[in-house]
Design a protein that fits this description.
Elements: H1 17-44, H2 52-57, H3 76-89, H4 91-111, H5 114-125, E1 131-134, E2 150-154, E3 157-168, E4 175-182, E5 185-192, E6 198-202, E7 214-225, E8 229-230, H6 237-271, E9 273-274, E10 277-278, H7 283-311, H8 317-341, H9 352-363, H10 370-382
């Protein structure tokens, strides 16, 4: 029996029929709708908003949340497969879905009131309301506890002041989940983006995630009612709980990017003739392709076990950190090697590797840098905090 070059251990056979159906559906969407346009979108620094209605119609927004809120009620493994197939298209598409699902819909579901859930989640699942997640600040990054944005109680309202940076979907969003310091610790607020004093400024001149909207948010005396506060959590565990959900999706996503780069390099190597034979016939290229296949296989097995742990309610944040660290590093290394195999053609966005390589420079950084996740794993195995 011949093996699939992109699935040498037949990991697909370990999936249920429902999981394979989800993967196939999203793969078809990526092949038919994303790949034909994404190179041009990257070149033009344009997020393809026209894809949002179909993404929503497929049930990909808030896919793991309950059906009673208009969501698909899928498993963690199914959500992971969604992320993998979307990122095979582009990290910007997967980032859009991750932010909407894990960073905006999840905190409303997990920390919000029933009224907030009913008000926002169905419209967000339908793609009618886009959200953004306001945590990172211009001076901050890896130290979210050093938060300057603050919210002050004023009668029955809250008044928010501060700034957030590197916010995906910022200029697309109708609501922002804003985390702010209060007298009672860090708390989250649902802030409609048309509230007076709220503004978003799109960040340009990016060389990464060009097919994604990235913004700075500014809050200048933004007044919201008490009903906008997420009452179910206080402290950093609120935003960090959201990030664990999003990082879980990121552990799957880079596998899709790596497969896209590997498959293109493999096809190119079989067709590119140098010195009278295809470069795939050389030991140097075969060693590179074999290494790519090995690392993709290990990543596939890693995330499937992580997904099974998540669905069993046993997933730990340090396990997510290990998987994000491993799989982002795997993908960015493969993208660079694939670019090398393509030679001069590899620097063109007519091919996937340079686009994925540039995107992965953001993916390996956001929602916890590689170093942060290494230290999380180090703390887990030693019991000593080195932050």
């Amino acid at each position: 029996m011949s093996l699939s070059p992109t699935d040498l251990f037949d990991v697909r056979s370990l999936l249920s029929d429902e999981e394979r159906m989800v993967q196939d559906t999203v793969a078809r969407f990526t092949d038919e709708k994303v790949l034909p346009i994404i190179g041009d979108c990257f070149d033009q620094a344009r997020f393809p908003k026209e894809l949002v209605p179909e993404i929503a119609a497929l049930g990909l927004l808030g896919s793991s949340l309950p059906e009673e809120y208009g969501c698909a009620g899928m498993s963690g493994v199914q959500y992971g497969l969604i992320c993998q197939e979307l990122e095979r298209g582009d990290s910007g598409i997967r980032s859009f879905v991750s932010v909407q699902s894990s960073l905006c819909m999840y905190p409303i579901f997990q920390y919000g009131t029933e009224e907030q859930r009913r008000q926002w989640l169905p419209a967000m699942a339908a793609g009618e309301v886009i959200g953004c997640f306001g945590l990172t600040e211009p001076h901050g990054g890896s130290d979210p506890a050093n938060m300057k944005t603050h919210a002050r109680k004023d009668g029955g309202d809250w008044v928010l002041n501060g700034a957030k940076m590197w916010i995906t979907n910022g200029n697309l969003a109708k609501i922002a989940i804003v985390w702010a310091q209060t007298e009672d610790g860090i708390q989250g607020f649902i802030v409609p983006t048309d509230t007076p004093g709220f503004s978003a400024q799109e960040i340009h001149r990016k060389m990464s995630l060009r097919a994604s909207v990235t913004s700075a948010l500014f809050l200048d005396g933004v007044r919201v009612p008490e009903s906008a506060r997420l009452p179910g959590v206080k402290g950093l565990k609120g935003p960090l709980g959201c990030l664990t959900q999003a990082r879980y999706g990121i552990t799957w996503g880079p596998i899709g990017a790596a497969i896209a780069c590997y498959a293109e390099a493999l096809g190119y190597a079989k067709e590119r003739i140098l010195f009278g034979r295809p470069i795939a016939a050389t030991q140097a290229v075969q060693l590179k392709l074999a290494e790519m296949a090995r690392r993709i296989t290990l990543a596939q097995l890693l995330v499937l076990q992580l997904g099974r742990l998540k669905d069993a309610g046993r997933m730990q944040p340090s396990q997510v950190s290990l998987a994000k660290w491993n799989n982002c590093r795997m993908a960015i290394d493969i993208a660079r090697e694939a670019r090398d195999i393509l030679g001069g053609a590899g620097i063109s966005t007519e091919y996937a590797p340079i686009r994925h390589q540039l995107n992965l420079e953001s993916v390996i950084t956001y929602e916890g840098t590689e170093t942060v996740h290494q230290l999380v794993v180090g703390r887990e195995v030693t019991g000593i905090n080195a932050f």
